[in-house]
Design a protein that fits this description.
The complex is a heterodimer. Chain A is mainly alpha-helical. Chain A folds into 2 domains: about 130 residues; about 160 residues, no CATH class. In chain A, about 75% of the residues lie in helices and about 0% in strands. In chain A, a hairpin with an 8-residue loop joins strand 1 and strand 2. Classes of the chains: A mainly alpha, B alpha+beta.
Chain lengths: ~300, ~475
């Protein structure tokens, strides 16, 4: 098959994945909104999850299918250009969405996380939508600076870390919303299905603790690569600077939890702050920033 | 406690170390938002000329040299001292504790996590428990009627290894700043380069670097090949072939330098950084005497290598200056005029505007070799030359004889980087060990009744399962 056909096929896979994630989104929305049962006793609202169980399952099934199509899209994109599919920002974004939905499905297999399906499907749809409309670039070979085995190592580590960081952020944000609700006299109907605050708190911490070494590795792999491509391992390039800031922020978060015993609200805010430095790096530095990491193709 | 001790204790507390780390993160932000001199001096100049008043104040806080500014260094050095003061005593303590037994069993176990009383005879309990602890690699302290067991000691080992490695990285970064050198040179294909300070276009030495310590190698540029994607015009490969000899005069060896694979001599590396074209021209005067012949380096202006440069002829009377552009693949458009439409040389043109008068070279101010100061000159001709064409501009002739590729080599000596790499690898190992080791204590008492309890440091999960497993071992049945 020619490169061009592969590139088209990749695009169709991405569009199909978007359709599947849209169905997943509606399925999860239905699951959340219809599980409330109107009871005759107006004081108490009860839930009937059996009514929406099927909808939730459809949501998860669509998520898995969407993930597979997305995986196909990313792999075909790489095949069309005969390289790893991390050459410009469109490719970073579809791979990031893949890592994010993958992190969710992985966590779903271990924890009762289906309630996250709604925010995850929204985030994936937004990312893919932006990627295919604003960031899209035709499939092309790599510029010489990117031709290195470190591309596969450094970028994959960074993307996976990013996916997990953002999942931890989603959970921390959920924590803060629920925390506020409980403070104001109890959770809303739809929120009663969600796990306890303590579970959320622990979960976001565990995700960060799990992926922090990988992020450290991504930064170090970047430094090793920079040494062989640019003649220095660390040059305070804007991307490097913000990677360092993200690292410092998460290091502070881990210390705050382990040493200073931060839990709950304060920890969730710190987690959100750290995650936002990562997003800032991805969006701002890639598109408007200067420096040597100008591979967005925009 | 005197005030020095007090200050030392404050500086080396973990809280201070963390605050300093956060401050280092915050302090690095402005450097990513404002242009930096060591990365892009041109951008800094542009910024200053567009915002003169603001820049005046920004200069006072070294906002264009953040990473070498005193305030940034101050945070860096304080963090370094604080880390040492924080980590070294803890490491010594840790080493001393290696042979030691776990702490004594607490008096009241019922206040501890996972406390339970077992309904079993006291006899033989401790022996049975000891066997279980041994099997699971706990460290044990056995008293008359209790056992205190601890596991996960390597958590602290990993933790300390991680922080000690960070210190090593900080030292390596500092060493890179104090020793070593970094320079650049532009070479045309065919040129020879000898690694001495005078061969460079610019070179900077670190504080403690002696100029005589440079690796004595020489290079001859044999060939440079750039290939481009015909659809996007983006480069796909750069390959530079050189004949290298080290030390100078020894047998030449053929070496290939690519963007991601520099030429390496110990801690000195030669990097391929940029490339462009040098048109080869000959200028003759009215009497047809050869005034100049050679390759003139031009600066690329865009991705298609539209390049600009200057040919200065101070020895002609009157002086002649040529403002020139080189187009590897010439094209024209009504809006842009002449431009290059592809970076490879397919249909080259040399565009010159010839100026006569005073080049202004002797008034002392340094001039760019890529530009002509035409303020005291008048234009006498304009021409687009094809390859091999001769242009008679009245005062003489210009021949466009050909072109050569040039490469910009960056030659860096950083003796600190190997230590930074070692530090980085150890840091990752330490981090993995400390984050994935669970540290916990389990106690068992048997004084009339059998009690067990435990403590999971930092609230890590898994203690309950472990206690349950111990109970099974002691009771012989599942609860």
């Amino acid at each position: 098959m020619t490169s061009r056909n592969l590139a088209y096929l990749s695009n169709y896979s991405i569009y199909s994945a978007m359709l599947l994630f849209t169905i997943a989104f509606f399925a999860h929305a239905i699951e959340v909104s219809f599980s409330v049962k109107n009871s005759t006793d107006s004081e108490k609202t009860s839930f009937d999850f059996s009514r929406t169980e099927r909808s939730g399952r459809i949501g998860t099934a669509m998520m898995i299918l969407g993930f597979l199509f997305l995986l196909g899209g990313v792999v075909l994109r790489g095949a069309s250009a005969h390289r790893v599919p991390w050459g410009n920002m469109y490719e970073f974004s579809i791979t990031g969405a893949l890592a994010f939905s993958g992190a969710y499905l992985f966590a779903l297999a271990k924890y009762k996380l289906r309630w996250l399906g709604l925010p995850v499907s929204i985030a994936v749809l937004l990312t893919l939508g932006t990627a295919i409309t604003v960031l899209y670039r035709p499939s092309a070979p790599l510029v010489p600076a990117l031709k290195s085995t470190w591309l596969a190592i450094h970028v994959s580590a960074a993307i996976v870390s990013g996916g997990v960081f953002l999942l931890a952020n989603t959970i921390a944000a959920t924590y803060l919303i629920l925390d506020r609700m409980e403070e104001r006299g109890g959770r809303s109907e739809w929120a009663k299905r969600l796990p306890s605050l303590e579970t959320l708190d622990q979960l976001s911490y565990r995700l960060v603790a799990f992926v922090f070494p990988l992020w450290t590795f991504a930064v170090i792999a970047g430094a090793i690569w920079a040494e062989s491509a640019w003649g220095r391992y660390w040059g305070w390039d804007p991307k490097e600077t913000w990677a360092f800031i993200t690292w410092v922020a998460y290091a502070a978060y881990l210390h705050a939890r382990v040493t200073a015993g931060w839990r709950g609200r304060k920890a969730a805010w710190l987690c959100l702050f750290a995650g936002s430095t990562f997003l800032f790096n991805y969006v701002y530095v890639n598109i408007w920033g200067t420096g040597r990491h100008t591979y967005s193709g925009l | 406690m005197n005030s020095f001790q007090w200050m030392w204790r404050q500086l080396t507390s973990m809280r201070t170390a963390l605050i300093l780390l956060m401050m280092l993160g915050l302090a690095s932000i402005p450097g990513s938002l404002f242009p930096q001199r060591n990365q892009n001096p041109m951008k800094v100049r542009d910024f200053i000329s567009h915002n003169p008043t603001l820049s005046h104040w920004l200069e006072k806080i070294q906002i264009f040299d953040v990473y070498s500014s005193p305030w940034f260094s101050a945070i860096y050095i304080l963090l370094f001292i604080s880390l040492i003061g924080c980590v070294l005593p803890r490491s010594l303590e840790h080493v001393r504790a290696i042979g030691k037994k776990p702490p004594l069993t607490p008096k009241y176990l019922d206040r501890m996590e996972g406390f339970s009383e077992l309904d079993r005879p006291v006899d033989g309990t401790l022996d049975q428990a000891q066997a279980w602890f041994k099997k699971n690699h706990f460290r044990i302290r056995r008293e008359e009627n209790s056992i205190s067991a601890e596991k996960g000691y390597s958590r602290e080992t990993g933790n300390l290894l991680f922080h000690l490695s960070l210190i090593l990285i900080l030292v390596a970064v500092a060493a890179g700043g104090l020793f070593g050198s970094k320079g650049e040179t532009i070479l045309n294909v065919g040129d020879r380069f000898i690694n001495t300070p005078t061969s460079y276009d610019n070179i900077s030495f670190a504080k403690f670097q002696r100029e005589g310590d440079m690796v004595p190698f020489s290079l001859r540029v044999l060939d440079f090949k750039a290939s481009y994607d015909v659809k996007t015009n983006a480069p796909t490969d750069y390959t530079l072939k050189v004949a290298a000899s080290n030390p100078i005069g020894s047998k030449e060896v053929l070496k290939t330098i690519k963007v991601n694979s520099p030429l390496t001599y110990g801690s000195t590396k030669v990097y391929l950084q940029a490339n462009g074209y040098s048109p080869v021209v000959a200028v003759r005067d009215k009497a047809d005497k050869l005034i100049f012949e050679g390759a003139v380096t031009f600066l690329p202006q865009d991705g298609n290598l539209t390049s600009i440069g200057a040919i200065k002829l101070p020895d002609m009377v009157p002086q002649i200056g040529m403002v020139a552009s080189f187009l590897p693949t010439a094209d024209r458009s009504p809006t842009r005029g002449a431009f290059s439409s592809f970076p490879e040389v397919l249909d080259p043109r040399l565009l010159v505007s010839v100026w006569m008068g005073n080049l202004g070279l002797d008034n002392g101010t340094p001039q760019s070799v890529y530009r002509v100061d035409t303020s005291k000159m008048q234009r006498i001709g304009l021409k687009a030359l094809k390859l091999g064409e001769i242009y008679n501009f009245g005062e003489g002739t210009l021949t466009f004889e050909g072109y050569r590729s040039w490469v910009n080599l960056q030659i860096v000596d950083d003796p600190g980087k190997i230590y930074a790499l070692v530090g980085a690898i150890l840091a990752i190992l330490g981090l993995l060990t400390s984050l994935f080791t669970r540290q916990r204590r389990i106690w068992i008492k048997s004084d009339g009744r059998v009690q067990i309890a435990g403590l999971a440091k930092n609230g890590v999960p898994g203690l309950d399962e472990e206690l349950a497993s111990l109970k099974i071992a002691l009771m012989g049945i599942e609860e």
